[in-house]
Amino acid sequence: MTAERRHAQFEALLLGLKTNRGFDFTGYKRSTLVRRVAKRMAALHVDTYEAYEDYLEAHPEEFAPLFDTMLINVTAFFRDPAVWTFLAQEIIPRVVAGRTAADPVRVCCVGCASGEEAYSVAMLFSEALGEKSFRKLVKIYATDVDGDALTRARRATYDHKAVEAVPVPLREKYFEAAGSNAFTVRGDLRRVVIFGRHDLVQDAPISRLDLLVCRNTLMYFTAETQPRILARFHFALKDGGFLVLGKSEMLLNQGDLFTPVDMKQRVFAKTARTNLRNRMVLLAPKDDNEVANDTGQQVRMREMAFDLVALPQFLVDADGRLALASGPARQLFGIAPSQIGKPLQDLEVSYRPIELRSVIQQAKAESAPVTVREVKHVDVDGTIRYFDVEVTPLNENGNRALGVSVSFTDVTQSRELQQALRHTNEELETANEELQSMNEELETTNEELQSTNEELETTNEELQATNEELETMNEELQATNEELETTNDQLQVRTEESKRTDVLLNAVLNTLRVGVALVNARHQVLAWSAMAAELWGLRAEEAQGQNIFQLEIGLPLDKVKTGMRACLAGEKNPEGIVVKAVNRRGRKISCRVTCKAFAISADERGVILLMEEMP
Predict the structure, then answer these.
(1) Which of 4, 35, 126, 589 has its CA 20 to 30 A from that of 543?
(2) Predicted confidence (pLDDT) at residue 274 exceeds the cutoff of 50
(3) pLDDT (tens digit, 9 = 90+) per residue, 180-199?
(4) Residue 429, class by beta-carbon neighbours within 10 Å (0-12 exposed, 13-18 middle, 19+ buried)?
(5) Hey, do 300-410 and 512-614 end up sharing a CATH topology, with the first three levels equal?
(6) Pairing of strands 209-214, 105-110
(7) Can you tell me the distance from the alpha carbon of 213 to that of 124, in angstroms, rounded to the nearest whole number?
(8) Position 289 pLDDT exceeds 60
(9) pTM (2 decimals)?
């Protein structure tokens, strides 16, 4: 199968997970997802992504282990201690300074996994404010896309190994014993932390945050998805709020959103922006008399009339905020009523289906309408449509700018009619483009010199991506190591149990006053008692593992063979047989040999030989 075919099948698998289960992995790094899915496919002996997708349809229970594998939940209390020390000493005191019940502290831990990080934040705030003030002033939200991990986080019970990372004073203060090897976070601290499912790619962020902790989560997303998530983080934080990232994560090309507080600890502050929310409600300029006579009902009538316009259209005020949107525009671009009044740059319609901000700036600068032709738009059902987008400045009396109007005219049908003609024109232009390319090749040398700086920036981004990839692999190895440690502990327990069983068996055999030999169905000696060694002069180390009929001892074993076979066949021989033998001292003796059958396993039997010297 070609690489292109495998890639197409993998993308189809991700699309199926999004459609059927609501998990959108399309924004995650493909290299990480391919490794994690391959792990599940290898466990099931499935060779292709297409076959694995069929397996998921036939076995819905496979979704749970698949998501557990894809969503790497590696976390710990106070992971990277230097970061937590910096938060406790520098950031948290600045956040809580001067707070009252009317202005609570809002914190969010994104990608919280099983909750250790969220409870670490809670302990630091409790130490900074005191327990009573902490419960009144602080609200902590912890989110993750993995529902099973959130269930474990709400339970807040951890084993002794996980709690070892918590400093002893905090451990004694905020944890309670829950059995011989488990600890539970104290109830009053646990109630302050609110856990909920949240998809960074699809869901709107929690707003008005003072501190947002997102450590070692961004590195799982693609370079195209990370800026979108960071833009949502910027919207979620208050002005001056703090963002904490993981040790392998950077804010490349995001200087307009965040400024570094401490680059080594990956702590950043939100860059303040204007907070004006003036909303344009009038569609045309009015003189003083009209303003005096205008009423709220008239304003509402204008809004309703605008809402009924058949053309998809919306208005952006002078501060860059969405002022009004017609009904067709809300339906076409999925604009919710709650988004009216928000900055246009924070909304999806600002860059899809077209980057509007540059066009709006051009219209304002030229004070004239700007039209962008045949902009492609894909509807929710997959239908492709084309629009002429017209941006028109709205100026009051030709002077003061109120904002701009953005309208979308459907030109899909006309575009289809012109497509044949355009194709012909393109063929004619090809010859001209080929001639032009010769001139462009001559200019390549100068462009290459100019691109050197861009290549250096690209190299830096590639190094950052490589660092994130290595960190991802490290966490995968850590998760695998924890599984191996658990398996090793179980093997050690079983080994100790086996040793105790061997000691007990040897003690029992050595206390018997008759010689005992345990033989399997292949006539191999499994055990040889001390009395047997005393009787025949052959140590246990020499007898074990040997064929009993090949042992050089004074017992005529060929006469015992019939009794052993009878025992293996299920016949009883309670009396045994008496044979003439020679003991280890060379003295002739009479020896009674008794055979008893025993079960080695469900499908294998063995024989116990009891050898007793007769007086």
Answers:
(1) 589
(2) no
(3) 889 999 999 999 999 999 88
(4) exposed
(5) yes
(6) parallel
(7) 13
(8) no
(9) 0.52
Domain boundaries, given as residue ranges, for the chain? 3-70, 81-270, 300-410, 411-496, 512-614
Rounded to the nearest 5°, which phi and psi values hold at 186? -55, 140
CATH topology of domain 3-70: Chemotaxis Receptor Methyltransferase Cher; domain 1 (1.10.155)
pLDDT digits (tens, 9 = 90+) for 304-331: 666 666 789 999 988 889 988 888 888 8
Spatial distance between the Cα atoms of 186 and 61, rounded to a whole number of angstroms: 34
Higher pLDDT, 388 or 438: 388
Q: What Cα–Cα distance (Å) separates residue 260 from each residue in 108, 218, 268, 271, 522?
A: 19, 17, 4, 10, 75
370-378 vs 384-396, strand pairing mode: antiparallel
3-class DSSP state for residue 401? strand
Angstrom distance (rounded) from CA 283 to CA 303: 9
* pLDDT for 344 beyond 80: yes
Neighbouring C-beta atoms of residue 548, cutoff 10 Å: 23
Provide the pLDDT for residue 255: 62
With a CB cutoff of 8 Å and minimum separation 6, the contacts of 206 are 106, 108, 141, 143, 198, 236
Give 276 or 271, the one with higher predicted confidence.
271
CA distance linking residue 301 with residue 430, whole number of Å: 54
Sequence-separated (6 or more) residues with CB below 8 Å from residue 458 = none
pLDDT in tens, 464-501: 888 888 888 898 898 889 889 989 999 998 888 888 87
- Locus of tokens 């900074």: 128
Average per-residue pLDDT for the chain: 84
Phi, psi of 281 (to 5 degrees): -115, -10
Name which of 98, 101, 431, 95 is nearest 267 in CA terms: 95
DSSP symbols for 180-247: SSEEEE-HHHHTTEEEEE--TTTSPPPPSEEEEEE-S-GGGB-TTHHHHHHHHHHHHEEEEEEEEE-T
DSSP secondary structure code for residue 537 in this structure: S
Q: How far apart are CA 565 and CA 523, in angstroms?
A: 10
Higher per-residue pLDDT: 468 or 436: 468
Contact 367/395 with Cβ under 8 angstroms? yes
**Neighbouring residues of 609: CB distance < 8 A, sequence distance ≥ 6:** 515, 516, 517, 518, 519, 548, 560, 564, 593, 594, 595
In this predicted structure, which of 116-125, 419-428, 566-575 has the lowest mean pLDDT? 566-575
Tell me, what's the pLDDT at 252? 57
Which helix (H) or strand (E) segment holds residue 613: the answer is strand 604-614
The whole-angstrom separation of Cα 476 and Cα 69 is: 10
Question: What CATH superfamily is the domain 512-614?
Answer: PAS domain (3.30.450.20)
Residue 574 pLDDT: 60
Higher pLDDT, 272 or 562: 562
- How many contiguous H segments (helices) and E segments (strands) does the chain have? 21, 20
Please give the structure tokens belonging to residue 59. 């076995």
Upper half-sphere CA count for residue 518 (Cβ side, 13 Å): 15
CATH classification code of 300-410: 3.30.450.20
* Helix or strand holding residue 589 (H, E): strand 588-601
CATH superfamily of 81-270: Vaccinia Virus protein VP39 (3.40.50.150)
Partners of residue 610 on adjacent β-strands: 516, 594
Tell me the HSE value of 510 on the side-chain side, using a 13 A CA sphere. 9
What would you report as the CA-atom Rg of the chain, rounded to the nearest whole angstrom?
Answer: 39
